[in-house]
Each structure stands twice: as C-alpha cells, then as structure tokens.
Amino acid sequence: MAAMRRYGLTWTDPDGSAQVSAGVFGKQAAIRRQRALKAAGCTHMKVVKVHAGELPHPAI
C-alpha cells in the first residue's frame, strides 16, 4: 500500500502578508482550498508536499 501524500498551502493575503496552512490536506482538498483562497483575493498560492509532522514554509 502506498503512503498517503500530504499537502499544505502557501499564499499571500490581499494585504501582502505571507501565510501557510496550519494543517495538511489530501491533494483534492488542497486544490479546493487553493481555489477558495483565489476567490478571496489571495495571490501566490502554491500546493506543496509536506512530510508527516511538518508544515509548509512561508513564501516570503
């Protein structure tokens, strides 16, 4: 059985603040969250692979 892949998100808020997701997602859930962030006016969104116990690094 293949290991579950985990994904996090990095993005920039409309006010210019760099952000990262506080949790991890499956691939499809991460893509849905990315679309929601775009609809909210966020930019520079990236879906990134993360290892168990890690969070993505901010896109500074």
Give an overview of the whole structure.
- The chain has 60 residues and is of the alpha+beta class.
- The protein contains one helix and three strands; from the N terminus they run E-E-H-E.
- A three-stranded antiparallel beta sheet has the order 2-1-3.
- The longest helix has 13 residues.
Name the structural class: alpha+beta
Largest sheet: 3 strands, antiparallel
> What is the approximate shape?
flat
Number of helices: 1
Detail the poorly predicted runs.
none
Q: Tell me how many strands there are.
A: 3
**Termini, distance in Å?**
36 Å
Oligomer: single chain
Helix proportion? 10-25%
Compute the CA-based radius of gyration. Answer: 12 Å
In terms of DSSP E residues, the strand content is: 25-35%
What is the H/E string?
A: EEHE
Task: Report the average pLDDT across residues.
Answer: 87
> Biggest sheet: strands side by side, in what order?
2-1-3
Secondary-structure blueprint:
Blueprint (H helix, E strand, L loop, with lengths): L5 E7 L5 E3 L6 H13 L3 E8 L10
Antiparallel strand pairs: 1-2, 1-3
Q: What are the main properties of this structure?
A:
30% strand, flat, 3 strands, 1 helix, alpha+beta, single chain, 60 residues
